[in-house]
C-alpha cells in the first residue's frame, strides 16, 4: 500500500503527490483568501488519505461532517457536550484510533476556542502507549491561534493558543501531525505557522500576506505578484512531503461536498412586488406562505448521548487491519546514521556559493535532504549544524583519524571563523601550499580580500598561526600547536 496520495496535477499535467509518512513528521500550512479553495484542498487530502491514517478534524463551520457516511468518520457536535464529556471523548479517540470530525458550528467564537482547546489538549496529553500517528486538521486556524487579541477574553485566547502551539511544536513526538488552514497569514500566530515545513499557498490579495507567502515558498519578493493571479483551486506547493522546489498544483475532484452550499445562481422567488410586501408585512400571528422557490432544508439530528458516542468511537477503529502498538510516535522509524549525516553535509557544502547563504536557509535545506533520505539528524540543532557545516566546507571528515589533532587545536575557534582555519591547518599538516586568498574567501563566504588579511591577522594574534614571508616574497603559514607549516608559495 502506497503511503502517498495524489492531490492534483501540476502545470504539465503530471500528478502531484503528498507523502503521508513525511507529512506526519513535517506538518502542513494551507493559506488562501475566502473562495480560493482551501476547504476543497483539505477535503481532497482527507478523502485520499482516509484509508491510510487516523484523521481528526476541527471543523468550525460544520463543512466536513459529510465525510461521515462514505468514510466512516464519527461526527461529534461540540455544542452538545460538557467539558468533561469532551475530555472523555478525546481520550477514547486516542485509545481506539477513530477518525472524527469535531463540529463547532453551533457555538459562538469563545465557546469554539474553549472546546477545541480542551479537545486538542486531551489528544496531546494521551499516555505514551497511545501515541499513534494521526492527521489533525484545523480549518480557519486563525480563529484558534490569533496573532493579536480580539473579541475574546485573554484567558480563552491563551488556552487556545497554547493548545495550537503544542499541536504544531510538540505534537510530532506524540504522533500528531498538524494541518492548519488560514485565510490570512498575518492573522495567524507566527510561532504556530513557523513550525510547518510544508506549504500550499492559494490566492491572496493583500501585500503583507503575499510577501509572507512568498518568503515561506523561498520566492523572491518580486515574484509574490503571481500569488494574486492564482485561480480558484490552484495552489503553490513546497516542502519535503510535496516537492523540494515550488510547484503549481491544480487540486483534483472530491467525492463529498459541504452541506448547505449553494453552487451558482438560483431563480428568484416568483412572488410579485405586492405579494412579497404582504408576506413581509403580515401580522406575526397570521400564517406566512413561503415563496414558491426555496432551498430544501432538512431537520438537524438530535445530539447523540455521550455514552452512545463513546461506544461508537470504540467500534469505529482505524482503517484497515489493527496494527500492533507502536514503538515510536511516527509512522516510520528514522535511523540516526552519523555517516549519512556527514555525507549530506558534504553534499550541501559542494553546492556553488553555499557559503554565501544564510545559516537558517542552509539548515532548512539540510533537514529537507535528511528527510528525503529517511535519516535522522541525531539532535543536530542550528548551533551544532553551523560548526559541522564549517567542517564540511573545509573538507573535514570526523571519521578520518588525520583530522583528530586539528579538531583538538580548533576546539576554541568560533564557528564563523572555523572553516578557513581548518583549511590552513590541513594544508600545514600535509606540508601542502596554503590555499590561495580567493579560496579562503570562498570558504569564509566573502568577496573581500581585505577581510581575509584581517582574518589571518586575527588568527596570528590569537596564537593559532604564524605567518612567515621569506626574502623571495614567498609566504608560508605555520600552526604551532601542530608543529607543522605549509609549503612556501608566492
From TrEMBL:
Keywords: ATP-binding, Nucleotide-binding. Gene3D superfamilies: P-loop containing nucleotide triphosphate hydrolases (3.40.50.300). SUPFAM superfamilies: P-loop containing nucleoside triphosphate hydrolases. The keyword Nucleotide-binding applies. Residues 24-214 form the AAA+ ATPase domain. It comes from the Bacteria. GO terms for molecular function: ATP binding. Pfam families: DUF87. This is ATP-binding protein.
Amino acid at each position: 500500500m502506497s503511503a502517498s496520495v495524489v492531490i492534483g496535477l501540476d502545470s504539465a499535467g503530471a500528478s502531484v503527490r503528498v507523502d503521508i509518512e513525511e507529512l506526519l513528521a513535517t506538518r502542513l500550512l494551507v493559506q488562501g483568501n475566502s473562495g480560493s479553495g482551501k476547504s476543497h484542498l483539505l477535503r481532497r487530502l482527507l478523502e485520499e488519505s482516509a484509508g491510510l491514517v487516523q484523521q481528526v478534524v476541527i471543523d468550525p463551520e460544520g463543512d466536513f461532517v459529510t465525510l461521515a457516511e462514505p468514510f466512516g468518520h464519527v461526527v461529534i457536535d461540540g455544542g452538545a457536550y460538557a467539558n468533561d464529556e469532551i475530555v472523555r471523548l478525546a481520550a477514547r479517540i486516542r485509545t481506539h484510533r477513530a477518525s472524527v470530525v469535531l463540529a463547532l458550528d453551533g457555538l459562538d467564537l469563545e465557546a469554539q476556542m474553549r472546546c477545541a482547546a480542551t479537545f486538542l489538549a486531551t489528544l496531546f496529553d494521551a499516555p505514551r502507549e497511545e501515541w499513534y500517528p494521526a492527521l489533525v486538521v484545523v480549518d480557519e486556524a486563525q480563529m484558534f491561534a490569533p496573532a493579536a487579541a480580539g473579541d475574546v477574553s485573554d484567558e480563552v485566547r491563551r488556552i487556545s493558543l497554547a493548545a495550537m502551539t503544542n499541536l504544531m511544536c510538540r505534537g510530532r513526538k506524540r504522533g500528531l501531525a498538524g494541518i492548519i488552514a488560514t485565510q490570512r497569514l498575518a492573522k495567524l500566530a507566527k510561532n504556530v505557522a513557523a513550525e510547518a515545513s510544508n506549504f500550499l499557498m492559494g490566492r491572496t490579495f493583500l501585500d503583507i500576506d503575499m510577501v509572507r507567502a512568498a518568503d515561506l515558498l523561498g520566492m523572491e519578493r518580486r515574484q509574490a505578484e503571481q500569488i494574486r493571479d492564482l485561480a480558484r483551486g490552484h495552489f503553490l506547493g513546497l516542502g519535503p512531503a510535496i516537492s523540494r522546489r515550488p510547484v503549481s498544483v491544480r487540486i483534483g475532484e472530491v467525492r463529498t461536498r459541504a452541506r448547505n452550499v449553494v453552487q451558482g445562481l438560483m431563480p428568484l422567488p416568483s412572488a410579485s412586488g405586492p405579494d412579497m410586501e404582504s408576506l413581509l408585512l403580515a401580522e406575526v400571528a397570521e400564517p406566512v406562505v413561503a415563496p414558491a422557490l426555496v432551498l430544501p432544508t432538512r431537520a438537524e439530528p438530535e445530539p447523540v448521548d455521550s455514552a452512545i458516542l463513546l461506544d461508537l468511537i470504540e467500534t469505529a477503529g482505524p482503517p484497515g487491519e489493527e496494527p500492533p502498538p507502536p514503538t515510536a510516535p511516527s509512522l516510520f522509524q528514522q535511523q540516526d546514521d552519523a555517516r549519512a549525516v556527514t555525507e549530506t553535509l558534504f553534499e550541501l557544502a559542494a553546492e556553488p556559493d553555499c557559503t554565501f547563504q544564510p545559516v537558517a536557509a542552509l539548515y532548512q535545506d539540510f533537514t529537507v535532504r535528511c528527510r528525503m533520505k529517511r535519516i535522522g539528524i541525531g539532535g543536530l540543532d542550528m548551533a551544532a549544524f553551523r560548526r559541522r557545516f564549517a567542517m564540511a566546507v573545509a573538507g573535514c571528515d570526523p571519521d578520518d583519524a588525520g583530522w583528530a589533532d586539528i579538531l583538538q587545536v580548533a576546539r576554541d575557534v568560533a564557528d564563523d571563523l572555523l572553516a578557513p582555519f581548518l583549511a590552513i591547518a590541513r594544508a600545514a599538516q600535509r606540508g601542502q601550499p596554503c590555499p590561495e586568498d580567493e579560496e579562503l574567501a570562498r570558504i569564509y563566504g566573502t568577496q573581500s580580500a581585505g577581510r581575509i588579511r584581517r582574518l589571518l591577522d586575527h588568527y596570528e594574534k590569537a596564537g593559532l598561526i604564524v605567518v612567515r614571508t621569506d626574502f623571495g616574497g614567498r609566504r608560508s603559514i605555520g600552526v604551532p600547536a601542530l608543529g607543522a607549516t605549509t609549503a612556501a608559495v608566492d
